[in-house]
Model the fold of this input.
Amino acid sequence: MVCKEYEILINQYIDNKLENEDSLRVSRHIKTCEGCREYYEMLTLMKSETEMLLQPPPDDLKDKIMERIFAEKRPKKKIFYPMPFTFIATVAAVIIFTLSSGNINNLFKYSKNKAENLAITENKTVSETQSNNLYYSNTSILADDIAENTQKENAGEATEKNIYEDNNKEKPSAESLLKPSTVSKQTKSVNTKNNESEKDTSNANMSVASDATEEMQNNRVAANITEPEIAGDFTEDSANETLIYQADISDSSGGEGSKEDRIQEDNLQTELPALKSPPEETLKSTGANDTLQNLGAVAFVKKLDNPNEDVIRSLENAQLIKEDDLYYYYLITDDELKTLEDTGAYIKDYEGIEGFVYEFDENAGCGLLIVSK
Amino acid sequence: MNDIEMAALERVKKGDVSVFEIIVNLYEKKVYNTALRMCKNSEDAFDISQEVFLKVYKSIYSFKGESSLSTYIYRITYNMCIDFLRKQKKQNSVSLTNEDDEGNIIELDIKDNKDGTVEAFEAKERGEVLKNCINELSDIHREMIVLRDIEGLSYKEIAEIIGIEEGTVKSRIVRARNNLKNLLLNKGNFFDNYKSKKVDIKKGGKS
Done:
């Protein structure tokens, strides 16, 4: 019989889990105690033979596995690389909406900064002087200038890095486009073009928009945002072009022959329940607030241990732009928002999936959602 | 996670699916053996192994490197085996093919032995006795023997895979080994060799 006090020790001794002192104690003990020695020897024999039960897997296992892997769809990352152009346009639209609805103090705590004031002034000018066709493209530019200035003043570089971190790692080719500095640069260049000649930009808008309408049946920002795959690399030119293209798609919903659509949209939007902000504490503790503000972003949902599968599924095509320990940050369209609501997840009240919309830009038809894992 | 694994995963994420074979090469044996001993059946182990790697592939983005890839894959394997065993218990079906399958396995096990020799026969018999006794253990104890004594995982790794405290692993290993030892003592002649050697030594000492 093994001594009770040595039973665990002998097992650990066999597993080389004992410190020198204990190891020495056990080895001395089993020399003198026959019961423990027998126990030790039996266990050692048993263990050594058990180890020998390891056997090579069947020859065809690997082939079978690889065959099935190749047949499998490429795994989808829940994060979809943000398409730079839709990202810019979305953020721009969100900020402009916020500016125009006078909610800037809610969105930007640093409302005192000069850039913001300047932005409001410029916004007015732009709204008054630019044609409808140019509205979104200019607001994009404006919004990015605002973002650039506010980010500078608030030393928000670290936050920006976080936002783009994943994407930079994953998609180095898109890196330059995703960096806010480059984005600003691009939009600036468009801005200059616009200043030089409104007509040029209008023409560009028209031509791209005509192509765009064929591809995008809905003529909405939503359609563009929900593209599940990003094909290839983006050049700076193409990004600029798509920025304009994006803007025109948004605008075309308000153009000729689409008034009814807009009315319908307005009706749908008015049916949406009141928006709710997340608790301040949550925002502070996660740094989400800064991120949201810098993005001009509008909604998020907390990660959960037991995710609501339907919610996750309904967000498969949404752009996840950042992820941290607690949240997924999605840019979502109002279509996606509705889909989410259809799943029974009342995200605006963060019930069911403990998520909520921070703020949703109904005019732009998009927002930011951070959803539970 | 080592560099090769990291690099392989990154390549797979970028769409180079064939690189996944590196991961399969590294873990195929571990996954298969764990499934084989846990589920007691080579056919099921074959199927489960495939499912495990398929799941690893599909959830490649879920692996954040918080644990080692090894622990991650073992955890998936373990969970799949437990699910399988639960389903099996629900169906109240007992696999009758165990013995046949196990017979095949034994042949592989003793491939280094020369067929027809007394050693080969003894090893085959002892191996079979050992496997049968492991199969008779409760799931909780069998998983300890499989993960610790067959797969050679550390207490910490086992704790992570199963989701229990390291202290619990320590005490469960003791109970699992004790039970296995008792089964071997009661049901077979597993320790006969050891005992006879012991007697010989004693006799030798006396003479």
